[in-house]
Specification:
Strand content: 25-35%
Strand order of the largest sheet: 2-1-3-8-7-6
Number of strands: 17
Low-confidence stretches: 431-435
Largest sheet: 6 strands, mixed
Structural class: alpha/beta
Length: about 425
Amino acid sequence: MVSVELITVGDELLIGQVIDTNSAWIGRELGRIGAQVDRIVSVHDTAADIGDAVGAALERADVVIMTGGLGPTKDDITKKTLADLFGMRLVRDPDVFEHVRRMTAERGLEFNELNQAQASVPEGCTVLPNRVGTAPGMMFSRPDGAGGREKLLFSLPGVPFEMKELVSEQVVPIVKRHFSLRSVVHRTMITFGLAESAMALAIAPWEEALPGWLHLAYLPNARGIRLRLSAYDVDETSATAEIEARFAALREYIAPYMLGYEPSSVESAVAALLRERGRTLAVAESCTGGSISARITALAGASEYYLGGVTSYSNEAKARLLGVSVPDIERFGAVSETVARQMAAGALERFGADYAVSTTGVAGPGGGTPEKPVGTVWMAIAWRTEKGETKTSARLMRFSELREQNIERAATHALNMLRLHLLGMSAAFQQTGML
């Protein structure tokens, strides 16, 4: 087993100003090759904290990966600290110097003293060229004190897209060359529509039938539950085939809730259905504020089926842009079944789409009433029949008092409502209350 420790450098991580997404991404990438992350540590931008973290990590782990603190400003001290720790002086690397000079010129930036300092690296380290940024990565090696295999320390930029390039193109290949890694197979199925406890009950017979060498993990979030099957120290070909067969058998228990393998999502499932059927979509949003449109257009090729959307936050916009009846708004309120249906039908007509989705609700934290508390959301879909008639279906959902969570859940459930309709499952789900 190759053990790995991750060290992230930066005060911004410790005060919560920046979320550490680097560690999660690195952990996933290393897990795919059979290297296990045992510890993640975040430290201040001080030489003492960095030095202590590096020293402790190298005592425990085979591979240490640091991110952050490699910029051109005075608060970026990782490079200098590592040079001191390994007893190296900083020297100019001519290849890095030319790369930084060329990159600053292409960006129209001044090639000043701070930029030039990016080309200074600890003498004796292995420079990892950064083709998408100016700060190079660095690798240091140290013999294991017990006389075993060589330990590796990588220092990488904290900018996520730069870090990802260096890990994918250089760190992973180096680790694979230096260590004998155990085989590992992960496969993750994305599901949506069942709570974790309900999911566990629904798939209990399937789970109990899994062989002992297959490990199941439940990974819930606001966009569904990920079911991951993992196998270690196995023949990868046969293990992959067995996992595929097990997930195929899972359809007997929860087929309507299965969206596909990671990175599938509700929106990608909807996109696939629309694309294969040659149908188009429009969106009318109020409480979700454009989130549905954003999630759809984040998918490559969305222009094949997505025509456009309206974020009609005010009542005036609902009436003027979507043709919602003003008397109906006054009588039933903006957060109502009637308005949700009219918003969907209005988007369908305005854009000439085959399908439309709408949301209207109380996202919070204010604006709720005893009749319509925060978290109340009406959503609807509209579609054209073969005869060209417009039909609608609506659904009431009640979420929490947390605004961000309400927006994300409303967007996901509205898209899932359309997915189920496209699969011909809407009626059954409306009757059972499962959505």
